[in-house]
Amino acid sequence: MINIFSQLLMQANKSLGGLCLDPQNASPGPFVLGNGDFFIEIPVAYGCSYSDLTLTGANGTARPEASELIDKAIGTGVESRMCTAIKVACYYLEAGLVRKPDLIITSNSCCDAMDTLGNLINGYAPWARVPRFNMDAPHSYDEASYAYFGKQLRQAVTFMEDVFGRKMDWDRLREVCVLSNKQDQLLLEFQELKKAVPCPANPDFSRLGFAYDRWTGERVSPEITGWLEQLVSASEERVKAGLGIEGINEKVRFLWQDLAGSWPPGALWTRLQKELGAVCIMDYMSYGTLTPVDLSSEEAMFTSFGKRFLLEDPMNRQALHTTDLFCNDILQIVKDFKCDAVIMPAHIGHRDTNSRMKIVREMCREKNIPCLVLGMDIWDKRYMTPEVVFDRIKTFFETVNLLG
Amino acid sequence: MKSGLKSEVFEKFAAAAGGIMNPSVAAWKQQGGKVMGYTCSFVPEELLIAAGLMPFRIRGTGGSQSAGQADDYFEAANICSSVRHCFNKVLLGEYAFIDGAVIGGGCDANRHILDNWQKSPVATPFLDRIFFPHSSHELAARYFRDQLAGLKVRLEAHFGVQITDQKLRDAINLCNETRDLQKELYAFRKLNNPPISGAETVAVMVAATSMPKAGYNADLKQLLSELRRTTVPDKIYKVRLMIVGPGHDESSICDIVESLGGLVVTDLTCFGAKAMFGRVRESGDDPLQAIADYQVLDRPFCPKNLGAHPHIHDEVFSNIRDFKVDGVIGQNFLCCDTWGGEIYILSKELKAAGVPMLRIEREYISDSTGQSQTRVQAFIETISGGV
Fold it and tell me: What is the ipTM of this complex?
């Protein structure tokens, strides 16, 4: 008999799997393409489909033919040491595999490579006549910055209205936000349950949940709300019963301070759980600091969107801002989620993370938090194979006496 | 750098560009002047000059090929060596003469120089940052103006000065004069036999970021006057090349090209033509907004900016026409995502236009000059019909 968590996993993976072919999925209605996250409530409420080419590239690295795809991507001639997920996205674009959009909306966000992808989209000759709107995400997180980015999002809506000749249904947008606020609340409830020792459910559900409700284009789908409600309810029951992840003897709780990449849930994390009892409690994608969208006025709503984008979106929070915020998050997560160690994958394409490694190492040393820096490619298993990563993590845990 | 120029004033520029501390800075400090380091050409020198400071653009050139100390802070394999070498110089104490630094957020690694600097043992009295908008629109220009206003307040508080609108206007005027003079310098390079080489031009342009501005302008006027009087013997160059890429603050590629019978006649680089592009508006009642408009709306040449490519494209192609360019060398430093992408886009467009392009991905301080020389030689021979 399949337990509830297995069912939930299958349901989410089925929806997320479709994202690999996102560019080719011709949904009816206008198609908007971007280089990163857009406030998904806007296209959902407007009735258009939105595709994030970065995400599409990242999902490409999880495909069975990933190695071949990555080799082709390297062959395009973009910066040879750029993030592999973005390189794959560039390949999709240059190979003509991406559906021609009706509108392009780009912004700088997490990293230099995503900006590069934005410029490649904007400079793609066959789309020279496609209307485009560029937004600036500042590297600061204060009310002025949220308002600034919110105003740009508002301008993007006006631009979209002009391009498509149809007005935004503001009541519909509010309705979408009410529902997304509810989904976010459920995500936070699950996150809260993960603080329990042992962790009641595979922590990777946070990441899946975030991706599921944000990126499947089904932001207001009752199916997602139901999925989250079941996840919270099933986890609550296990916490009350003092049970951890089924079949896992939890010994080590660690923070993976980066994106999960295309490794889990198969190659690495499941093996770490099963063989070492080491549970990845948190990663970039799973860390929710979501505040509800303020629906009191149009201005407040867009300022909320600005805050969501700049401070609360996965990886934007970690990559856009100062090392202080990055380090404070590490300390907070380690404390709140009772992590025994921090693993810094130091993904080769993340210039921001690779620029703060000494500060992180020294902070962890000072706070007596065991910290391992890997230096891997989270999207290309050939750079540092899952077996090598496993061995390094195992040796590290043994060295700092976490395996008992 | 190999130079055939017989000019005392040029030697002054070469000295300023060749290392970090130089006689012009030493004289400024001797008189009690304060120096403000900065990274990225969009940190407006006008604001620093209006505060009575001498702007000095932080470079990593001159010295060892290792960035050993900085590599402890930045993971060497994944971070552009330009950033690492610049910060290495800071850690080695070669910037001990500066009284502060303003770090610009040109790229991910660059903006983290500040975080690392603050945590390092190097005690610099004033450290600050501004972020350059990544899109070019009115809202972004206003946002950048607000950032400049914040920096202005902090400069005033720290250095005990008042930055009036008149001081800002005077500084804008001074920097516009620099740009105008540099344009005159570049105009010589449109000639079939320019009186100044590409490598020598790099020295003059880099010196602009390493000397007090008023003195630089006076010296550049003198050099221009000398160049006007120079009789250049007829010489047929194999090719006339343009260099496109990020901070081109040393002349190694120009040296290679020019030692092989070619000539670098123009560029689109951070220390070169990008720095002298256009002028800051001198009219209007808000000089800070004029500076912001210039940086955000008029001169978005950094590929970190999502709207930059059309500007870069137009500027490259117009320079190809104006300077009679036979081919383009697109160079970017390893791990520089933004310029890597831009050079890639440009390479396709240049190919479509029938303009030969050589792409060089290299380290900031090159340890493979021989390899570059072979590639440049093949490129020159291909264009000039030698092979």
Answer: 0.92
